[in-house]
Amino acid sequence: MVRPDDIDAAVAALRAGSVIGLPTETVYGLAGDASNVGAIARIFAIKGRPATHPVIVHVADAAAARAWSRAWPPAAEALARRFWPGPLTLVLPKAAHVLPQVTGGQDTVAVRVPAHPVAQAVLEAFGGGIAAPSANRYGRVSPTSAAHVRADLGDDVALVLDGGPCDVGLESTIVDCTTDTPRVLRPGRITAEDIAAVVGMLGDATGGVPRVPGSVVSHYAPRTPVTIVAADSLRATVDRCRAAGQRVAALAPSASTMADLSLGIDAEAEAQAFGRALYSHLRTLDAAGADVILVARPPEGDAWDAIHDRLRRAAAHAAHDGA
Ligand code: TXA
Ligand code: MG
């Protein structure tokens, strides 16, 4: 899907200070040269994101990540060894050269080594750090395909590399390594349990000092209001909404509880498959023109944490639209 010419064109665009759509294994990124103030400004302008929100710097390997931080604690070393390249972002004390536009003026920087072969090829050929938030307008559902990026951003990005559908489908796990005990700031495919298994104790993420836009309640929201209901009451809730004259779209755990517009995700299927498909299904349901999207609550458990987190934010939409 992506040819060597495309990688060359992407690198040339990055060197020229342009921004591109870049596939990663988590979600597509809106990518620009992390050392170019103009490129960072373009990323924020296209996303419509407040300038105080920091972005993740993507690098080719752990050695490059160290060059963006002024301290590399043992926990960072252990996590990098275990999970990079992969869907993990580490927050570290920033190196002196890191632009304040990248960190939102904070003294910390978030770095990640993505596993997607296209992202890797671009990073290796480019050589520098690539700032890349998810390639969606601020507050909306993250893109998990090149088509999603084009649908969201249109002509605002000249080049979108099509690396196929994202394997993880949910944003990276963010771990703050600036405190004595690392803290999970954003859950993802790599679970808190996975992190704890490597670093031992985990700190409490609630007293978070660093700003994480993903922690803004209304993030990841479709335009249609989302309501989460107990799986066994989905059918009754669909009926009640319809009786009240509402058009209903539903994301259901099994065929037996599926509503007309349901896309039939099997709740018994593993959390990874659900996470991979979630954003794409939310987009499809959002486009169905319903008055409400009903989502049957998925199972509990560590592997489902990131999914519960994103669904909670999607469901907070009505109260926080436009954030
Ligand atoms: O999977 C991902 O992380 C994707 C792909 C493209 O890599 N990127 C992504 O970027 O989700 P974005 O900008 O949508 O979310 C980045 C998160 C935000 O919640 C941001 O606040 C947090 O990283 N972040 C960035 N720098 C930080 C810092 N210095 N301290 C704490 N959080 C930071
Ligand atoms: Mg995002």
Please tell me what the overall shape is.
globular
Poorly predicted regions: 254-263, 319-323
H-E order: HEEHEHHEHEHEHEEEHEHEHEHH
What is the CATH topology descriptor of the largest domain? DHBP synthase
Secondary structure class reads alpha/beta
Range of strand content: 5-15%
Spatial strand order of the main sheet: 7-1-2-6-3-5-4-8-9
Largest sheet: 9 strands, mixed
Radius of gyration computed on alpha carbons: 19 Å
Q: Return the CATH architecture of the largest domain.
A: Alpha-Beta Complex
**Proportion in helices:** 25-40%
Number of domains: 2
Mean pLDDT: 89
Count of individual beta strands: 12
Bound molecules: threonylcarbamoyladenylate, magnesium ion
CATH class of the largest domain: Alpha Beta
- Helical stretch count? 12
Q: Looking at this structure, what is the CATH superfamily of the largest domain?
A: DHBP synthase
Rounded to the nearest angstrom, the distance between the terminal CA atoms is: 35 Å
Written account of the structure:
The protein has 323 residues and is of the alpha/beta class. It has two domains: 4-199, Alpha-Beta Complex (DHBP synthase), CATH 3.90.870.10; 226-321, 3-Layer(aba) Sandwich (Rossmann fold). It contains twelve helices and twelve strands. The chain has helices at residues 4-15, 37-47, 62-67, 74-83, 100-103, 117-126, 146-153, 192-199, 234-243, 271-286, 305-315, 317-320, and strands at 20-22, 29-33, 56-58, 88-93, 108-112, 130-131, 159-160, 173-176, 183-186, 226-229, 248-251, 292-296. The strands form two sheets. The protein has a nine-stranded mixed sheet, with helices on both faces. A three-stranded parallel sheet has the order 10-12-11, sandwiched between helices. A hairpin with a 6-residue loop joins strand 1 and strand 2 (29-33). Helix 1 (4-15) crosses helix 6. The chain binds threonylcarbamoyladenylate and magnesium ion. Residues 133-134, 142 line the site of magnesium ion.
